[in-house]
Write a structure and sequence with these properties.
With 213 residues, this protein is of the alpha+beta class. Helix content is 23%, strand content 23%. The chain folds into 2 domains: 40 residues, no CATH class; 153 residues, Rieske Iron-sulfur Protein (3-layer Sandwich), CATH 2.102.10.10. It contains 4 helices and 10 strands. The strands form 3 sheets. Strands 5-6-7-8 form a 4-stranded antiparallel β-sheet. Strands 1-10-9 form a 3-stranded antiparallel β-sheet. The chain has a 3-stranded antiparallel β-sheet with strand order 2-3-4. The termini are far apart.
Length: 213
């Protein structure tokens, strides 16, 4: 009789212990990266890259002049460069970015200006943003909307029609505008006048995230 009672208690203890372990594993699976369990139960978060040179002013200017000479002023993809930052494509396809030389006189009446660097003689003529649409994460591309000469250079989504201003990436049309979503994340830049290098220093926002509330 006593032996049977001891066996029953052992089975109960085993079941309780198993349930407790399952609960801990479930909680650990959703733990934030700061907890040690993240390194055991989930892949390690990718390492964020530091400042990265993405182009030079001379290279962007040459692409722009060549595009204008070929009659492609209204095809800004022809004078843009694409790069992954601050994570490589092997870590996430959503961190593809673009840097574009913004059009200006004499090709259009008024210089298109990057408002984040309005007083910088070089960076005011350059825009750089993440290309993951904040609506449903398609990849947008530099394009043009409006009549020639209107200055409506935009980033356009081929999937559902969202459009963002090329200067500040604020949604101006399509689902991203209708839903009041966030702008595309801005790539922060620095310029070295001695070398002409343009460097990506940080990403202001999270790729593909349209709301933070």
């Amino acid at each position: 009789k006593p032996a049977a009672k001891t066996s029953a208690i052992s089975r109960r203890a085993f079941v309780v212990g198993a349930l407790g372990a399952s609960t801990l594993l479930a909680v650990a699976a959703f733990a934030p990266p700061s907890l040690p369990s993240w390194n055991i139960l989930n892949p390690l978060p990718p390492t964020k890259e530091g400042p990265t040179q993405v182009t030079t002013w001379n290279a962007l200017e040459a692409k722009y002049r060549n595009a204008v000479s070929a009659g492609n002023l209204y095809s800004p993809s022809d004078y843009s460069e694409f790069f992954y930052f601050p994570y490589p494509v092997t870590a996430s396809p959503y961190y593809k970015n673009v840097i574009t030389r913004l059009p200006g006189p004499p090709d259009i009446p008024t210089q298109v200006v990057n408002p984040f660097y309005a007083n910088d003689p070089v960076l005011s003529k350059v825009a750089a943003f993440n290309l993951t649409c904040v609506h449903l994460r398609c990849i947008v591309n530099p394009g043009y909307a409006g009549t020639p000469g209107s200055g409506e250079f935009r980033l356009q989504c081929p999937c559902h029609g969202s459009q963002y201003r090329l200067t500040d990436a604020v949604p101006v049309a399509g689902p991203a505008f209708d839903l009041g979503l966030l702008p595309l994340p801005r790539v922060k830049l620095s310029y070295d006048s001695a070398t002409g290098n343009i460097t990506a220093t940080d990403l202001d926002g999270t790729a593909g995230v349209g709301r933070t509330d």
